[in-house]
Specification:
Blueprint lengths: L6 E2 L1 H6 L3 H15 E5 L11 E8 L7 E9 L6 E8 L13 E8 L2 E6 L4 E4 L4 E5 L9 E8 L6 E8 L5 E2 L1
Parallel strand pairs: 1-12
Antiparallel strand pairs: 2-11, 3-10, 4-9, 4-11, 5-6, 5-10, 6-7, 7-8
């Protein structure tokens, strides 16, 4: 649930006499609280057991961000893998290498996992969503890499959600 807080004085309320104006203001405030973006799907490999990958730039305002989330919906089976790796492109070549990745989230052979390379831990079956709070989000993370390999149509859909600092509307 998103909480919105904005202080309005009596003069501004007098200007916003209609209910529709207040509702429009509330809708605009809620719309600014969180943003979602669905990443484009990767093309299918041209040969069996082919790997396809791409990099997606992360644009996160760490000062305003409260929570960062990824949701992965895919047809996961024993013959394919899909993963999202997050990290800092230290060498600036636009390609997130294994050594640059801090987290990997996905499914391999039909089993979902979350690998944290910083702590060398792996969580099996963490669910289809990854949520990173501000305190755990590295402001240097600037790149995500999507990798799809194996047989079968994965049909992956990856959605990024950034929840910004919350606020509320108060009418006096």
């Amino acid at each position: 649930m998103v909480e919105c807080r904005v202080n309005l004085d009596k003069r501004l309320v007098a200007m916003l006499k209609t209910t529709s104006s207040l509702l429009a203001l509330l809708a605009a405030a809620v719309a600014c609280a969180a943003t979602s973006f669905t990443w484009p799907q990767l093309p299918e490999g041209t040969l069996p057991d082919t790997e396809v990958s791409t990099n997606v730039a992360l644009r996160v305002d760490n000062l305003k961000m409260k929570r960062f989330g990824l949701s992965l919906e895919a047809t996961c089976c024993v013959s394919n893998e899909v993963l999202v790796a997050i990290g800092c492109d230290a060498d600036g070549n636009g390609d997130l290498s294994f050594e640059e990745a801090d987290l990997a989230f996905g499914s391999d052979c039909g089993e979902r996992y979350l690998a944290d390379y910083r702590t060398q831990t792996i969580v099996i079956n963490p669910g289809s969503s990854l949520v990173i709070d501000k305190k755990d989000f590295n402001p240097n993370w600037n790149l995500a890499k999507i990798i799809k390999r194996g047989l079968g149509e994965v049909g992956e859909e990856i959605t990024e959600t950034i929840e910004n600092v919350t606020f509320s509307i108060t009418i006096r």
